[in-house]
């Protein structure tokens, strides 16, 4: 099989992930598009001086591409993805798939109609600790799953999400979607179902009262989080140069009932001093949870409790250590994600990630955001069309001969 010619749309914060696609004899990034000169300069640094550069993604159509990465800000994922799906080119879309259910469904429908391959970058499905948790569940370590709880402590949330475009609803819908789509996908994956009814509460508790707005735009065109991140600033109220518009919640809590009867909860806070995720899965014969998530290359441990005892025990009846690769790519998850996409783009077949699952995570987050902004009103989550679900369940079969 010849070397895949790969394109990248949006050379920003997540572009180094696409550099993992440069594999001699397998794939090579040959074309990039970014309206920002900094993005185009970075493309040369990441992908080499021979990479073809464009301001507009439409100009990439003549570059003979075999696959593309869409790594733009969330609110501008849809148009370039639709453009290349219509052209029959396999598309990788960074998570979240989109910021509205309508755009997600449009992307699923476009892949279905064109029989083009669509892939979504939910890299946590490749995170070693979560894969081990899923394997323990599949092996029956806690019986049948009945509940999943996730607490996400976003310790650098002020720097990561309140100094640029993430702080505005128009660009994200809300952080329950933008940041939470990761976790909601994992909750669905561990529980084996999709959210169908949600309630939520949330607030802009800390950053909304911060008077230290930028005089102009604190994140000028091309500005990125590493330009301003400072781990030494504490407490969160001491942060300066927040985005001029801050209208997303910095703390959110949601409850959801899945279509298989599993109950789940998700809590997200952007002003904690620590930064990690904790998943607890409760079955009818035990429970398990992770201590550490391995995102930064640290090792993690899964504890399993499945014998009756009095009181709390930090160590479970089964302790499962999980070693994590030390590379700076989300504990090896980004590398595994790109490996899977390149294989899928070239040959098709089953994948650990799922465009339908990505859509379901967005749909749950959209419903939860609507609930919390209406004072906790219950909101139903619409299901995607059955024929589209079936198409992706069959691993996106190629276009049928006419």
UniProtKB/TrEMBL annotation:
Start and end of every Gfo/Idh/MocA-like oxidoreductase N-terminal domain?
A: 4-122
Q: Which InterPro entries match?
A: Gfo/Idh/MocA-like_OxRdtase_N, Gfo/Idh/MocA_oxidoreduct, GFO_IDH_MocA-like_dom, NAD(P)-bd_dom_sf
GFO/IDH/MocA-like oxidoreductase domain span: 131-289
For this protein, the record's Pfam families field holds: GFO_IDH_MocA (PF01408), GFO_IDH_MocA_C3 (PF22725)
List, in alphabetical order, the Gene Ontology terms for molecular function in this entry. nucleotide binding
The name under which this protein is listed is Gfo/Idh/MocA family oxidoreductase
Q: Please tell me the species this chain comes from.
A: Streptomyces coelicoflavus
């Amino acid at each position: 099989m010849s070397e895949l010619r790969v394109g990248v749309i949006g050379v920003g914060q997540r572009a180094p992930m696409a550099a993992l696609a440069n594999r001699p004899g397998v794939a090579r990034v040959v074309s990039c598009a970014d309206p920002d000169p900094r993005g185009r300069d970075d493309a040369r640094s990441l992908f080499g001086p021979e990479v073809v550069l464009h301001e507009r993604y439409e100009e990439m159509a003549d570059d003979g591409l075999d696959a593309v990465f869409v790594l733009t800000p969330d609110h501008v994922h849809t148009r370039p993805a639709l453009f290349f799906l219509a052209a029959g080119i396999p598309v990788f879309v960074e998570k979240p798939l989109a910021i509205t259910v309508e755009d997600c469904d449009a992307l699923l429908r476009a892949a279905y109609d064109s029989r083009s391959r669509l892939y979504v970058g939910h890299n946590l499905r490749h995170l070693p600790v979560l894969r081990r948790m899923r394997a323990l569940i599949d092996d029956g370590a806690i019986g049948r799953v009945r509940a999943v709880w996730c607490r996400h402590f976003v310790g650098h949330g002020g720097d990561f999400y309140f100094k640029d475009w993430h702080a505005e609803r128009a660009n994200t819908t809300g952080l329950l979607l933008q940041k939470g789509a990761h976790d909601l996908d994992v909750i669905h994956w561990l529980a084996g179902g999709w959210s169908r009814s949600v309630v939520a509460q949330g607030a802009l508790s800390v950053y909304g009262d911060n008077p230290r707005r930028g005089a102009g735009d604190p994140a000028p065109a091309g500005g990125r989080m590493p330009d301003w991140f400072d781990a030494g600033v504490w407490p969160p109220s001491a942060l300066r140069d927040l985005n001029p518009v801050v209208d997303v919640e910095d703390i959110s809590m949601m409850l959801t009932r899945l279509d298989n009867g599993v109950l789940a909860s998700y809590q997200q806070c952007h002003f904690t001093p620590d930064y990690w995720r904790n998943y607890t899965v409760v079955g009818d014969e035990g429970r398990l949870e992770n201590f550490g998530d391995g995102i930064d290359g640290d090792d993690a441990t899964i504890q399993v409790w499945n014998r009756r005892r009095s009181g709390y025990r930090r160590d479970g009846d089964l302790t499962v250590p999980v070693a994590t690769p030390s590379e700076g790519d989300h504990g090896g998850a980004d590398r595994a994600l790109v490996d899977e996409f390149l294989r899928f783009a070239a040959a098709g077949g089953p994948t650990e990630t799922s465009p339908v699952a990505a859509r379901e995570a967005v749909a749950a987050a959209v419903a939860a955001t609507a609930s919390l902004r209406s004072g906790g009103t219950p909101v139903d989550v619409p299901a995607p069309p059955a024929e589209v679900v079936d198409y992706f369940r069959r691993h996106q079969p190629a276009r049928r001969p006419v």
